[in-house]
Structure formats: structure tokens, C-alpha cells
Amino acid sequence: MSALYVHVPFCQHICSYCDFCKVFYDEKWVWDYLKALSFEIKDKALSTSYDSIYIGGGTPTALTYQQLQYLFELLKPFSKQVQEYSIEVNPETMDQEKLELCFQNGVNRLSIGVQTFRDDLLKKIGRVHTSKQVLELIKDAQTIGFQDINIDLMYGLPDQTLEDVQADIQQLCQLDIGHVSYYALILEDHTILKNMNYQPLDDEEDAKWYHFIRQELKKYGFHQYEVSNYYRYKPSLHNLVYWHYQDYEGIGLSAHSLKKHHRYENTKSLTRYLNHHYLENDIPLSMEDCLFEKIMMGLRLNEGISLEEMNRLFDIDFQVKYQDVITKYQNMNFLEITNGYLKTTSLGMDYLNNILIDFLEDEQG
Predict the structure, then answer these.
(1) pLDDT given for residue 18 in this prediction
(2) Where is it localised (predicted)?
């Protein structure tokens, strides 16, 4: 599976919890950025036709119709064999013409930033769309022919209750949505809510809400396949590339790539990027780095990690090398080995960070 990530950093509004690499929309900057993106594509001599393309942000749909059209033309040579072609969408920046443009250019998966269906809570986190706009967007998209739609939801928002979360899930399940990504509100430095000293859920409350969400979604026919991701029909192919720790290409401001045991990090400076200085860091990854990162990503998945694959890729006996950590968490009912896969139990998923710290310390020890 070959995957391409394309970052579009522009937003018309900045949400109070967001710490992604983004800048306010400016028409000239966008055109300059698209030309710089074209330079990066040519400079890297990209030639692969990818199985998965994901356009993220920022807000890609903040671009005008003409700018989106230009972006799709840039990406056309790489989408000939694409199976999953995704774009992130904010409801207030999408209209019928842009939806049709996306569909005509092969986009077959929309990821809609909903966060909650409660309009008053949306205002508290700086979102400017309404739940009515979300419902209209989904209806229009499905009428055009989009069958693969993901929505992002969040819990732990200011003044949000468990009843609000339950109502969000009930609303979600009234729609023919095939995938949901459900994230806890985590406040990073320099976000508006962090600067306002908003206190997110403590660990105990977070675990309680998380369990509730998992049970509710299961009740409505959603299958959890990763810590924060659930599907009715099929998982996201692009996301699985990351979690299976496969190589991928990333282009655009702040984008990362993973290729042949190297991580490439693009600059976060728009000025540098527009001046064609896109690459910031080339980080060689040792086999120990790769081993831990594959454990870290793989244990996020419900399926876990294949012991046979780990032994083959890293020339080790995984169960012998990590015997102490595995035994410790098996005894606590946090880890289990089933059909050749090491995975977290339902209980263990809540303690994934602790488990990973022990794997890291065992590696370093």
C-alpha cells in the first residue's frame, strides 16, 4: 500500500483547541503555496501512482473552487490507481460546486470536522458551523455519490456532559455514516483554550467517557479497530498505512514522510516553504527506533502486532526479547496473545501509554 499525504495549512477561522500547523487564509498566499507545492513535487521527482491520497490541513476546503481545481491537477498524475482518495472538509467552507469538483476528480472519501452536534458547544471551541450545515452537507454529498464519509467527534469539551455525548452518537447513527474518529480534547501549549486555563477531563473521567463511547458505538454497529477509530463498513486504508508502520510520502508545510528507515520533516515556516526550502530535518532511524515505533503504532490497533512479522523484520524472537513486559501485562489482563498477534485487551487500551513506556525502557535497558 503506497500513500501520499498532502498538507493544506490554510483556515478561515482558528479553533480554540487546535495546535496543527495552520495560517489564516489569504488568496495570494494560497496561490504562492500551490506553486511551492508544485516545486516540492518536481524536486522530489514523485512518480508513483498512489493507492491512497489524503488531503489534510488546516482546512483544504477553505480554498476557492479554482484553487482546489489547481490542486487536483497537481495531484492527477499520482491518482491513477488510487483506491482511497480523502479530503478533510469543514461544513462552512463546502458547497455543492466544491463537492462536485471533488467527486469529479476521483475523491471518494470525505472526512468532515463535526466535533459535536450541539451548536452552543461548537461556539465554545471556536467552530463557526452549525449542526444544520453538517446535516445538509452529508445529504448533499450522499446525493452526489459519496458513500465513504468519516466524521470527527470530540469529547471533554467545555460544559459538555455525557448526555451530550450520547446525543451526538444517536445523531451520528441516524445518518448513513460509515466511519467515525472520536477524540478526547487534549490541550497543547499555545492553544486558545490552554491560554484560558480550561481544565480537560482528568484520567479517571476520561476513561469513564471513553468506555461509554466505545459501548454506545458498538451498540449501534460500529467496530473499533484503533484507539480512536470506528467503522461500520470498512476502516480507513490511509490510516492503516500509518498504524502498520509502512512507508509513506508527505508533501506540504509541516508534512512528514517515512521512507527506508528515514523520517523526513518539512518546515513549519510558511516563508521558508514559499521560498522552496521545504525540508527541515532528515532523521535516520536505527533498527531499535523502528522496532519501538512499530510496537507503538501496532498496539494502537485492535488487531495488535504480528509476532511472526516482528521476528522476520527485526531478526529477533519478540516474545523472548520482551518476555518481562509481556508477562507483566498479561498477568494484569492488559495484554494478550491471540492467533499469533500481541494486542491490548479492552482494559489494557486504557493503559496503553504505560505499556509503551515499559516497552521503551526494556528496549533501552
Answers:
(1) 46
(2) Cytoplasm
User: What string of DSSP letters covers 92-140?
Assistant: GG--HHHHHHHHHTT--EEEEEEE-S-HHHHHHTT----HHHHHHHHHH
What is each CA distance from 91 to 15, 61, 135, 306, in whole angstroms? 14, 9, 9, 39
pLDDT, one tens digit per residue, over 334-345 is 999 999 999 999
Angle, alpha carbons 153-8-247 (nearest 5°): 85
Q: Which amino acid is at 141?
A: A
User: Which residue type sits at 331?
Assistant: N
The full DSSP string for 254-299 is T-EEEETTEEEEE-S-HHHHHTT--EEEEEE--HHHHHHHHHHHHT
**CATH code matching the domain that covers 287-365, chosen among 3.30.565.10, 1.10.443.10, 3.40.50.1970, 1.10.10.920:** 1.10.10.920
**Residues in the chain, pLDDT under 50:** 15-18, 194-195
Residue 226 to residue 230: CA distance in whole angstroms: 7
| Helical (H) or strand (E) element with 216 | helix 203-219
Which neighbouring-strand residues pair with 266?
279
Pick the CATH number of 3-242 from 1.10.10.60, 3.40.190.80, 3.20.20.70, 3.50.50.60: 3.20.20.70
- Identify whether the C-beta of residue 89 lies closer than 8 Å to the C-beta of residue 111: yes
Tell me which H or E stretch contains 227.
none
Residue 361 has a pLDDT of: 82
Closest CA to 352 of 226, 224, 263: 226
Do residues 61 and 13 make contact, with C-beta atoms less than 8 angstroms apart? no
